[in-house]
Specification:
The complex is a heterotrimer of chains A (99), B (175) and C (632).
Chain A lengths: L2 H21 L3 H26 L3 H31 L13
Chain B lengths: L2 H22 L3 H21 L3 H26 L12 H24 L9 H7 L4 H9 L3 H29 L1
Helix pairs in contact in B: 1-2, 2-3
Chain C lengths: L2 H20 L1 H4 L3 H27 L5 E11 L2 E9 L1 H24 L6 H20 L3 H19 L6 H32 L4 H10 L5 E4 L1 H16 L8 H4 L5 H10 L4 H8 L1 H7 L2 H21 L3 H21 L3 H28 L12 H4 L1 H15 L5 H16 L1 H26 L7 H5 L6 H22 L6 H5 L18 H23 L11 H7 L4 H49 L6 H21 L2
Antiparallel strand pairs in C: 1-2
The chains are: A mainly alpha (99), B mainly alpha (175), C mainly alpha (632).
Amino acid sequence: MALEYYLVLSALLFTTGVIGVLIRRNAIIIFMCIELMLNAANLAFVAISRSLGEASGQVFVIFVMAVAAAEVAIGLAIIVSVFKHRQTINVDEVNSLKG
Amino acid sequence: MNPEQILFILFGAVSLIGAIAVISFRHPIYSALSLIVTFFAQAGLFILLGAHFVAAVQVIVYAGAIMVLFLFVIMLLNLGTLSAKGAISGKLKGFAVILGILLAIEGVYIAVKAPNDPADASAETAIESVSTTTYNIGELLFNEYLLPFEVTSLILLAALIGVIVLVKRESQEES
Amino acid sequence: MSKELIVVLLVAPLVGFLINGLFGKWLKGNEKLSGWIGALAVLVSLVCSIIAFTSLNSGAAPLDETLYGWITGEGFAFNIGFRVDALTAVMLLVITGVGFLIHVYSIGYMHGDEGYTRYFAYLNLFVFAMLILVLGNNYLMMFVGWEGVGLCSYLLIGFWYEKQSATDAGKKAFIVNRIGDFGFLLGMFTLFAAFGTLDFTTIFDAAEAGNFQQVFGASTLVIATLLLFVGAIGKSAQIPLYVWLPDAMEGPTPVSALIHAATMVTAGVYMIARSAVLYNIAHTGEIVAWIGVLTAFFAATIALTQNDIKRILAYSTVSQLGYMFVGVGVGAYASGIFHLVTHAFFKGLMFLTAGSVMHAMANELDMRKMGGLKSKMPITHWTFLVGALAIAGFPFLSGFWSKDEILHSAWGGSPLIYGIGLITAFLTAFYMFRLIFVTFYGESRVEPEVASHLHESPSVMWVPLVLLAIPSALIGLLLGWGGHESWFHHFTKAVAGFSSEAHGEASGNVILFMVISSVVGLAGIAFAWTRYSKRVPSDEPTGALHRLLANKYYVDEVYNALIVQPVKNGSHFLLWQLVDNGIIDGIVNGVAALIRFVGGLLRRLQTGLVQVYIVSMVLGIVLFLAYYLFFT
């Protein structure tokens, strides 16, 4: 199997995540899409690691997973807080950044 | 077609369909379940690539821990159906999809072009022969990447404390 | 005479200035000490000057030495250097001699003043600057001194800065002088363009050899000398820039004596005498002489009707400076400088006596409120009388010799100048003795409370008066006996440009001129006696001519209407309201308004919707990637 197949798959998964982030309003789904993007990156990491015959890429995947876990914990906590505060988790209803 | 190719197409299709399902379902529960499917498919891809340890971690951490957390929150907040009206107009949505497709084209272009660099000419042969074992990863993790590894633990600690503070302040405000 | 001597001479007043200027706060409790430090500094200079003078007099070669390079560049070099020849030596003696006596006098005069140490600091700084002016061996150093004395003049005129009129007078002096200084600068530029240097020796040699760039064609030197003369007009208060000097009397009286009678105002005369070579070649002396004689006459007529003692003396100074310019203008440089010397003594003396009168009269200056002071202040009276006789040209007193020499030379130049000069001499004698008769003779018109403590000045003040009165009387006889063959002429013969005097020998009988001058002077005195020995000047001017004179020909008013007001209006409407408010503020406000407008447009992009932001971010990523992948 050529490396590029894995990379193409990774790019498609990543783009799917991006589109999800752009079009969905539910904060939790947006979060899931971010996880998708991270996973796509992981896939590329592992594929390239394999192609180079080197384990470093897999080590980075471990790190990415750790960071993703931390991020999800914090993010979900924030979502819970926002929900308690505003009774919604729709990002277009949370617009206090408006200038 | 050899078995590896068949398996790649199988896992790849499943993960891609799962991903599209994640962003398509209205209900978050369905999205979360689709995401779990995607994660499992990806774990399969990792095994195909010979990264058994990563595949195991993928299943345990992502499909296990993280997704449980998602489901837990969704159910806790009781996010059933979501109101359809929103500030993001259809026009912007269409524009976002077009942007995403453009990005996909660019990503595929990179993916196809990059390994053809002469410097990486040996890559295609290498991918078949060399395998990386859990032993290798452990050695790297506790020698070369020891400091980042320790820092990761600090990140997790910080996340832990952060979550506690966030939720605790919330509860104080309520009381 | 060595270089070290000159350095000591120059630096002593600077040291005095630094001590008084920097440590004035600690000296405040002990003002006598502060004053004597100032006087001592000048005394050191005086001693050095005398040494330099005697060595020159005994035949030593003039010193022309460069200390070090000040500004050196590609193709030009300005040096700090000294030139001490007979002309400089004479100036040094005048500056330090009169300066020292005035310092001593000031110790008594300024007694109890709030700014006592400040005063002596300024005075020492002035002496320092004046010494630079006369010691420099190039025009740039002269200019440095020139500006230095201008600064000190400004500071000292406005010494009592709480008084509005004093600060106004200081500003007036400074601004009017600026016009002259501008001329001086342009003259210097012209000289530099023509000669490539500002050193006296080089310029004079090249000018005589005709070896220089004709930057303005054949009239290069004419333009250069006339521009320099503009500087002299400003500094030496000639028509049309004399207006600052009468107002300068707002300063302390010793300052008027030192700066505005004896030394600084004569800087213009010195400068022209120093540039004698150039004036000889350019033949611009006639213009100088005409300006001088007109100023002399003009100022003398104004002095006829003034009632303020110091103002009379101020106009008299302007008038006498005019005489000096006549002297240097007709080529009688030595005579002009000779008059400068005698004038420094007798005019300095008269200012100091005026100060003595003021001191006794509680700063009263209007002579209509005086009268009969002779019995109360005998020394002041006698010394003033000596000064007045000297300026009036009383036979064998100093003014007689110097003025006569100038008039004699003027006859050789132009009989008309001589005629006007002679009339002016008459007027001079008249207004001076009008002053004397009204102030010191007749009935006392002093206010009772002032009269009760009317007294002669303390010894620290009257001793300098006496010390000045003696040279005022005798210096002319000592130095000027023999007219153009006198010792003074002999001494200054070696100065560059002096020896080519084209006059004197050609003109008539020396004795006849002396007799005419004496008769005219005595006639002026007699006329003043007939009019003012019994009478007091009336308060209100009678007749049109009188009113014209009493109002100083309305020159200040005319300047105000023609120059000051247009400049003010121009500044107000054009510069302030149009340029500053309209254009500059307009630009600033316009930029702000533009930013505000653009900001208002961009503000709409801030929807507060995170996803809109992300879309723009992704758009950016897509575009950048497209650029890198497909266009590079």
